[in-house]
User: Which sequence fits this backbone?
């Protein structure tokens, strides 16, 4: 009993101490959560959780899933938005703004790192630009405007429906928890007293507030005198030590009893929870035992599976890996055996001239040694040996190809070969060189071919010159100088043509084999080849390069043949003794035959020999032209510009020319010469120089027909000849040069008319000449049509000048001189008009038989017009008008005599002569 009282007293003392501790803590600063400032009852709370629960129940409203805080005056919170926040944000808000409102925060020393904004960063922000209100803002966390952060598309949109499963899951537990909290309240009835009341009654109304607050502190340090005095008051005073000790013991026992009573009260309130926890603990233990049994069974099964299934399978995998490794070792050993046999195999392949297979074997072996047998010690010297063998094969291929080229090109040229000498060997050697990418063999073969051609030409030249007494002169390069005459050169070409074409054909056969081998090596199979299993090792770029070199080979060889043949003839001999037409014709046949053979071989026309032929032909053409041009100039200088008789042979030539047929006419006819030449159904009265010019034109055209190689040069020469004839005739007639060269006294109208008619005949012959040369030279090297057009314009201009000269003679010399002395007085007709009409008759007699009637009429129309102009001037001068007077009658009679003369000559149109108003325009 005593111990029980003592325990109770101790409990009371502890409760008193705890109460005193709480009071001391609150004295320093009362927490904001202890009381509600906006409830009329001013309810107090012991913990912050009770205060938070009170705010959620009394001072919070839920609007559309958002929580709105109502803790404030008039139900409005000053620190939370009116539109509400989420549940978590609401708890944060209550904790920060209402529960810990008076809590003192630890003082933090301010530094530059405590600044909310970086002033240099704000001032130098390039995206802000110049700010007008920068110096009027207040510094702080709102100094820079806050930007709205948009919702991230990577985050899902969380709604209340996502928490339905969680709410349903914990709903039962939460409701059960609420029921446990309400159990003491449900057991309490109005008739019964609360445990606190019973405890207060049993303890005489004592509560936890009666216990000093010092006993509720967790860090009571009794060695401090102040703390010791509070716990044991009055214990150190003398005289009352025994009494105070007893009282202190009773007080502490009382405090202990108060605490025990309250503990018992709390235990009684949570008894149902304790019993439920114990029941749950038993269920958990049973479940744990069952789980342990299941785990044990599972481990036994896993052990059986591991023993029966896994270990055996792992053994199978290990054995399969061992088998794979052993197979790799076996393959490696087999590979080493094959590599060991490489050198004997290479020797065997070289013995059968299979160079490509030997090179492929070397390349494959080197690749194997590099990739798969790098660490094999016994093969460390094999790569260098293979490199040396590869170099040896390269030299062997070059030597074999050189030996083959020399043997093939230098064998006798007896017959035309249809097949290549030892074709299989050539294919093997060329394939090996292509496999080695050694493309110099084409240039080497070209040099060998040129050497063989040079030797053949040299041998034939020596054999040709051996028959003569001439000495052989060699150049610095060991070749023959240009020592052959034209006849010797043609003899050489006749003999060398067959041999050179045979040699070129032999070179073409080797070229074709090399080209076919190149195509097969690049994968371009040929239908007429029977070895389609050739390995493809030549790239497209290399194939194009080799193909281009082979084309250059055949072109270079053919060009060299032409150049050597063209350079053998002596230019000095040709300059002293130009070729005759027969020699040019024979030389053209020889050159054409050789060029056609080379073109058939190379597929391209070669130029040098044809150029040499054309050079010799041009020399002949120049001499041909010079002779005839000098002859024509001599004839023109001696020409007296009188009409001549036209032999019948020339008439036959003109008839053939009109049919575009230039032939040589040799007619021994008894027909007398004709005074005119008929061409295109028109008569032409000509001078002797014009007839000779026609003969020269026929000679040019016949020579071009016989020698087409110089047709272009002859076409230009004949145009030059015609141009010279036109200019020289103009100088002799219009320029009066014939007065000195031919001894003429004067240039008459008949002379002018004859020159004009001769030029008109040449103009008519120009289209026939042009068509003749175009038909001969189909390559288009003759004079272009524009040259013929320019020459025709020159002739027409000359003809017009001759006509103007005739008009000037009649108008200035006759009409003007006679009308200047004329007067309107008897006798009628006057002497002036008689002289004018007499000159008209003489002019008509001079040009009428020569010029065509249309041209004669044109001339007289111009003279008639000029006559009226001169007469009008005289009428104005003598003041004679059309008034019916005597002078008017005299003029009328004079004009009647004038018109009768023109009517007799028939040089004016009939309607103009019959018209009474023909002479009306002489009167003003």
Assistant:
């Amino acid at each position: 009993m005593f111990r029980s009282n003592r325990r109770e007293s101790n409990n009371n003392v502890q409760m008193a101490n705890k109460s005193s501790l709480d009071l001391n803590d609150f004295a320093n600063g009362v927490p904001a959560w202890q009381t509600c400032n906006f409830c009329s009852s001013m309810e107090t709370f012991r913990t912050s959780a009770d205060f938070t629960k009170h705010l959620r129940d009394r001072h919070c409203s839920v609007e559309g899933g958002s929580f709105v805080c109502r803790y404030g005056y008039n139900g409005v919170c000053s620190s939370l938005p009116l539109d509400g926040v989420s549940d978590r944000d609401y708890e944060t808000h209550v904790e920060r703004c209402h529960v810990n409102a008076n809590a003192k925060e630890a003082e933090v020393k301010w530094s530059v790192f405590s600044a909310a904004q970086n002033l240099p960063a704000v001032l130098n922000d390039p995206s802000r630009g110049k700010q007008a209100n920068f110096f009027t803002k207040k510094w702080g966390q709102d100094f820079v405007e806050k930007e709205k952060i948009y919702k991230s598309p990577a985050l899902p949109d969380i709604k209340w429906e996502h928490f339905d499963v969680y709410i349903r899951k914990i709903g039962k537990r939460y409701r059960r928890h609420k029921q446990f909290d309400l159990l003491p309240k449900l057991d309490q009835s109005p008739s019964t007293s609360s445990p606190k009341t019973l405890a207060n009654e049993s303890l005489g109304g004592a509560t936890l507030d009666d216990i000093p607050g010092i006993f509720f502190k967790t860090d009571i340090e009794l060695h401090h005198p102040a703390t010791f005095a509070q716990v044991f008051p009055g214990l150190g005073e003398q005289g009352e030590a025994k009494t105070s000790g007893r009282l202190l013991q009773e007080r502490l026992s009382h405090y202990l009893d108060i605490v025990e009573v309250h503990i018992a009260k709390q235990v009684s309130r949570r008894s149902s929870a304790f019993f439920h926890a114990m029941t749950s603990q038993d269920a958990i233990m049973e479940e744990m035992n069952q789980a342990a049994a299941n785990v044990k069974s599972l481990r036994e099964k896993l052990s059986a599976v591991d023993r029966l299934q896994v270990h055996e399978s792992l053994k199978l995998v290990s054995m399969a890996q061992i088998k794979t490794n052993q197979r790799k070792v076996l393959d490696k050993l087999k590979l080493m055996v094959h590599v060991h046999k490489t050198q004997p195999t290479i020797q065997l392949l070289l013995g059968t001239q299979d160079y490509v297979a030997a090179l492929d074997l070397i390349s494959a072996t080197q690749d194997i040694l590099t990739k798969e047998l790098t660490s094999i010690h016994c093969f460390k010297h094999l790569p260098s040996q293979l490199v040396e063998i590869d170099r040896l094969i390269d030299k062997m291929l070059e030597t074999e190809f050189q030996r083959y080229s020399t043997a093939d090109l230098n064998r006798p040229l007896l017959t035309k070969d249809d097949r290549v000498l030892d074709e299989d060997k050539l294919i093997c050697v060329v394939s090996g060189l292509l496999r080695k990418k050694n493309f110099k063999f084409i240039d080497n073969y070209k040099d060998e071919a040129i050497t063989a051609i040079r030797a053949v030409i040299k041998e034939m030249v020596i054999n040709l010159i051996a028959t003569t007494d001439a000495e052989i002169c060699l150049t610095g390069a060991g070749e023959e100088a240009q020592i052959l005459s034209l006849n010797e050169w043609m003899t050489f070409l006749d003999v060398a043509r067959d041999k050179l074409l045979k040699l070129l054909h032999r070179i073409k056969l080797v070229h074709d084999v090399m080209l076919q081998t190149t195509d097969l090596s690049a994968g371009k199979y040929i239908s007429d080849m029977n070895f389609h299993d050739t390995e493809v090792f030549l790239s497209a770029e290399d194939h194009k390069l080799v193909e281009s070199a082979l084309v250059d080979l055949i072109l270079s060889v053919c060009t060299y043949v032409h150049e050597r043949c063209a350079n053998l003839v002596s230019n000095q001999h040709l300059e002293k003794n130009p070729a005759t037409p027969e020699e040019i014709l024979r030389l053209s046949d020889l050159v054409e035959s050789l060029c056609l053979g080379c073109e058939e071989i190379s597929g391209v026309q070669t130029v040098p020999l044809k150029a040499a032929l054309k050079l010799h032909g041009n020399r002949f053409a120049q001499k041909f032209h010079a002779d005839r041009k000098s002859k024509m100039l001599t004839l023109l200088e001696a020409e007296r510009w009188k009409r001549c008789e036209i032999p019948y042979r020339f008439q036959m030539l003109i008839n053939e020319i009109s049919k575009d047929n230039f032939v040589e006419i040799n007619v021994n006819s008894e027909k007398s010469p004709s005074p005119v030449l008929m061409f295109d159904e028109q008569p032409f009265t000509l001078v002797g120089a014009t007839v000779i010019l026609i003969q020269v034109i026929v000679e040019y055209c016949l020579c071009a027909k016989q020698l087409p190689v110089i047709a272009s040069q002859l076409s230009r020469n004949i145009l030059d000849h015609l141009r010279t004839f036109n200019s020289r005739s103009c100088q002799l007639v219009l320029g009066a040069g014939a007065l000195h060269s031919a001894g003429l006294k004067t240039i008459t109208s008949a002379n002018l008319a004859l020159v004009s008619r001769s030029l008109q005949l040449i103009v008519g012959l120009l289209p026939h000449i042009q068509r003749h040369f175009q038909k001969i030279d189909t390559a288009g090297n003759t004079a272009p049509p524009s040259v013929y057009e320019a020459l025709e314009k020159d002739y027409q201009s000359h003809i017009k000048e001759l006509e103007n000269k005739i008009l000037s003679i009649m108008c200035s010399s006759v009409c003007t001189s006679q009308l200047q002395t004329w007067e309107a007085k008897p006798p009628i007709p006057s002497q002036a008009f008689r002289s004018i009409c007499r000159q008209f008759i003489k002019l008509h007699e001079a040009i009428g038989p020569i010029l065509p009637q249309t041209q004669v009429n044109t001339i007289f129309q111009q003279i008639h017009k000029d006559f009226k102009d001169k007469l009008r001037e005289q009428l104005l001068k003598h003041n004679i008008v059309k008034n019916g007077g005597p002078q008017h009658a005299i003029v009328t009679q004079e004009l009647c005599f004038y018109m009768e003369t023109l009517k007799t000559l028939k040089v004016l149109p009939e309607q103009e002569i019959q018209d009474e108003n023909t002479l009306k325009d002489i009167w003003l």
In short: The longest helix spans residues 271-340. The chain is about 65% helix and 0% strand.
